[in-house]
Amino acid sequence: MKTQQFAVIGLGRFGSSLAQELMELGYEVLGIDKNEEVVEDISELVTHAVVADSTDEEVLRSLGIRNFDCCIVAIGADIQTSILTAILLKELGVKTVVAKAISVLHGRALDKLGIDRVVYPERDMGIRVAHQLVTPNLLDYIELSDDYSIVEMKVPACLHNKTLSTLNARVRFGCSIVALQKEAGVIIAPTALDSLQMGDIMVIIGMNDDIDRFEEEVI
Length: 219
Ligand code: ADP
Hints:
Blueprint: E1 5-9, H1 13-24, E2 28-33, H2 36-42, E3 48-51, H3 57-62, E4 70-73, H4 79-91, E5 96-100, H5 104-112, E6 117-119, H6 121-134, E7 138-143, E8 148-154, H7 164-167, H8 169-173, E9 176-182, E10 185-188, E11 201-207, H9 208-218
Parallel strand pairs: 1-2, 1-4, 2-3, 4-5, 5-6
Antiparallel strand pairs: 7-8, 8-11, 9-10, 9-11
Adenosine-5'-diphosphate binds next to helix 1 and strand 2.
Domain RCK C-terminal: 136-219
GO molecular function, one term: monoatomic cation transmembrane transporter activity
Protein name: Potassium uptake system protein
């Protein structure tokens, strides 16, 4: 199967980290930035890195940008450039365009252009860190919608050796434990008979209010 190809435009903190992680995951990555130094710094770490202005349509065309499976506009600080780049990528026929927004208004503008996915790294990381700070056993937090989330939580001492049926999270709190990560491996869709050991990681899905109650009353 052909490896998916990504183009990351804007190699600042977010773009360069994204580009390197995609490489680590085994994908081909073209990095683009108008700053020569930035491109030089990352050139050994991605498949190709080029100095180019992403608001220049001819340059994007000559890079064969429409052949990439996914282009990520990782330019945040300069909103005008971010929007112009996103428009050009769409017009050139790129299948999937993802763009980083630095504010709600920036995100709304990108949404209106029909960008396939708008991400808010700073806002999302702020929310995650806040949750981690107030819930010591919380490892990660992903918002699925305004009402629903998935959280990863360490099993605390008070739940050691308890089965999922004893915990009874679905009936008591309305949230479901959809996976359990144990030393021996991950159990997907654990059953009522599976037991929790201190230090295991529970992956819990549910409404935010229900997850909050679970955290307050159980953890
Ligand atoms: P971060 O906050 O993730 O560091 P920035 O918005 O500060 O993101 O960085 C954006 C990057 O995008 C910078 O490296 C900058 O040189 C690059 N950039 C800005 N405008 C263009 C452009 N027109 N074409 C290509 N790269 C650009």
